[in-house]
Design brief:
The chain is an all-alpha fold. It has one domain. 74% of the residues lie in helices and 0% in strands. The protein is extended, with a radius of gyration of 18 Å. The N and C termini lie far apart (49 Å). This is Flagellar biosynthesis protein FlhA. Keywords: Cell projection, Cilium, Flagellum, Membrane, Transmembrane, Transmembrane helix.
Length: 113
């Protein structure tokens, strides 16, 4: 298989995720994996930072929306953000309980703060 053909196949598969056909199930499986599989503290810090940034973006979009239908996807984003936060809480509790005896920095910098 040619390299350009492989790249075009990957792009078409990733474009299918954006259309909503597989995006939500893949996201839910990723959140389920976050709750069951151990996550390194650095990745947990990155995910916490992403969650805070997502919350700020949603807040700013809500403030600057002129009409209610400008942000009609709000309930869906709120549900996904809540599920992400729940998965992060379970994952961080797991890291603290498994590696809490290693010292202050064992659970990550964001959790420590």
């Amino acid at each position: 298989m040619d390299r350009t053909q492989l790249i075009s196949n990957v792009r078409s598969n990733l474009a299918g995720l954006g259309r909503g056909s597989l995006g939500v199930p893949v996201l839910l499986l990723a959140m389920l994996a976050m709750m069951t599989l151990p996550i390194p503290p650095f990745l947990l810090d990155v995910l916490f930072t992403f969650n805070i940034a997502l919350s700020i973006v949603v807040l700013l979009v809500c403030v600057y929306a002129l009409r209610p239908l400008d942000f009609a996807v709000f309930p869906t984003i709120l549900l996904v953000a809540t599920l992400l936060r729940l998965a992060l809480n379970v994952a961080s509790t797991r890291v603290v309980l498994l590696h809490g005896h290693d010292g202050h920095g064992a659970a990550g910098k964001v959790i420590q703060a």
